[in-house]
Amino acid sequence: NFVKIFLFFIRYLKNYKLKAGLMLISGTLSGPIWLLNGLIFKILLDDAVLATDLPIAERMHIFYLCLGAIVVWYLLYIMVKEVIPGLVGWYLHIRVALDLTRNMYLHEMKMELEFHHKRAIGEHMYRTAEDAFSGDMTDIMQDGTVISLITEDWMQFLAVISQFIVAVLLFWKVDPIVGIFVGCYLVVKIPAVHMATTWGNRIELEWREVNQERFAVERDIIAGLKTHKSLGTIGRAFRRYVLMLRENQEMFFKLVTIKFWFLNNFLLKFILGTLMWERVIKIYVLVGIMRGTMTFGDMVLVQILASQLQAPISKFIDMVQKFRKSMVPASRMYETMSLHPNIKDKAFAPRFGSLSGRIAFDNVSFGYSGGPIILNNVDFDIKPGERIAFVGPSGAGKSTIFKLLLRLYEPATGRILVDGKSLADHRIKSYLNQIGVVMQQTHIFSGSILENIRFGDMYASEKEVRWAVEQAELSEMVEESPAGLETFLGEGTKLSGGQKQRIGIARALIRKPKMFIMDEPTAHVDVIVETQLLHTIEKVTRGTTTLIISHRITPILFVDKLVVLTPGGVEAVGTHDELLKISPTYQVLWEQQRRESGK
Ligand code: ATP
Question: For a pocket test of ligand 1, which of 117, 119, 364, 374 has the largest count of ligand atoms closer than 8 A to its C-beta?
Answer without folding.
Answer: 374
